[in-house]
Amino acid sequence: MVSRVIPVDPFDLVIFGGTGDLARRKILPGLYRRFVAGQMPADSRIIGAARGELDDAGFQKMVAEAIAEFVPAERQDKAAIKAFLERVGYVSIDAKGTGGWDALKSRMRENVVRAFYFSVAPALFGDLAERLHAHGIADAWSRIVVEKPFGRDLASAKALNAVLAEHFDEHQIYRIDHYLGKETVQNLMAVRFANILFEPLWKAEYIDHVQITVAETVGVEGRGAYYDKSGAMRDMVQNHLMQLLCLIAMEPPYHFDPDAVRDEKLKVIRALDPVKPEDIVRGQYLPGGGQGGYVEHSEDPASRTESYIALKCHISNWRWKNTPFYLRTGKRLRARASEIAITFKEPPHSIFDDAQGWRENVLVIRLQPNEGMNLMMMIKEPGPGGMRLMQVPLDMSFADALGAEAEDIPDAYERLIMDVIRGNQTLFMRGDEVEAAWAWADPIIAGWEARGDRPQGYDPGSSGPEDALMLMHRDGRRWREIKG
């Protein structure tokens, strides 16, 4: 199997917040990898823009250090790094004032794609958008990339969308969610819509339930004060898990076209039922393992913000009526793992002895670690002695299937930035999607705030609060084990 690398058009990419953590960890190392892969044209330019007083050489030194730290040693090449750095520049900019904007304009070239990555706090989005136009830097073909959070409720999301819409059309705005850039997430669409095998079974008649899990082993130490203003519902469920749910549940679009795909995702969000209070479990991790608990890390002993949430939701449409979707995410859990598990119903009649322990078919899509898919199936246990059944996986790991080529698969940020340059919005959220997601999430948050609910404590290294287990047990189901 040979992967194809299709170069994009020449571009000028300006990274506002170019000296920040996201730029150092993900954006700049990812662009270097795309340059090495031959996808970034030699005459493209990357311009860092931030408050710091740096020159080109100083910023290039920072970029080189980021590559050294965040790109595996075997993927680093001195000649390639040197060539990449020659395409990197820097402008000191005042996002709320006039300083640096003329200098930035002088760096921009004609007849290339112009993209502007807002790797800054959302409070600065409006200022940057306004100044890009006021100084004649952005034109009708320019693109902006905005990082989450896209607001913290429906009202703020609408206000943010309105600010951006004052200066850019919707087709120019790329709201980035790195989960949608993962190879396995995109393969989910291929599995569903390019194979007759699954799509006829992809409905309530054959699927018992769906589990979506995003588990992390890290806590919120170092950014607790920031995280305490959002919590797991705002930070993860309303965006990352919602997008995964949409890809699982959406109807086939008429074409693999950005708006066609996003139209179908929007229908899913709007079909979500309100979530009942008894179908929500919230938790905070306790001290353990020589580390403090959530309340210590948040610096608020009275905090009621959740570091864990599990909930059951339903989609009121013909395809999914009465099929529950169970979502959970949390910090300081047993392992770092993200997966989607589609559990199929048992056969209507079994010809085998029930004592043989039939187990359900499950399609598991692993997002991290070790991206891939497996399908749990029942087969005959090898050997004599009659018909004994056992469950085995039909496993496809990208690392195993692609071998050395798996190392060349772009990570989420690499893929999404290249999609921005191509002008492909399929994997980016549209404004009405964001607002619909908040319209669903807001009443859930308002409900527990009105009730004064406190999150339940859970031990670090566990699978979460005990009540989360009961959320499944009362339905005669159980969570899949969290394992890396």
Summarize the structure in words.
This is Glucose-6-phosphate 1-dehydrogenase. Pathway: Carbohydrate degradation; pentose phosphate pathway; D-ribulose 5-phosphate from D-glucose 6-phosphate (oxidative stage): step 1/3. InterPro entries: G6P_DH, G6P_DH_AS, G6P_DH_C, G6P_DH_NAD-bd, NAD(P)-bd_dom_sf. The chain has about 475 residues and is α/β, with parallel strands linked by helices. About 35% of the residues lie in helices and about 20% in strands. The chain contains 15 helices and 15 strands. The strands form two sheets. The protein has a nine-stranded mixed sheet with strand order 14-13-12-11-7-10-9-8-15, sandwiched between helices. A six-stranded parallel sheet has the order 3-2-1-4-5-6, sandwiched between helices. A hairpin with an 8-residue loop joins strand 13 and strand 14. It is globular, with a radius of gyration of 24 Å. The mean pLDDT is about 90.
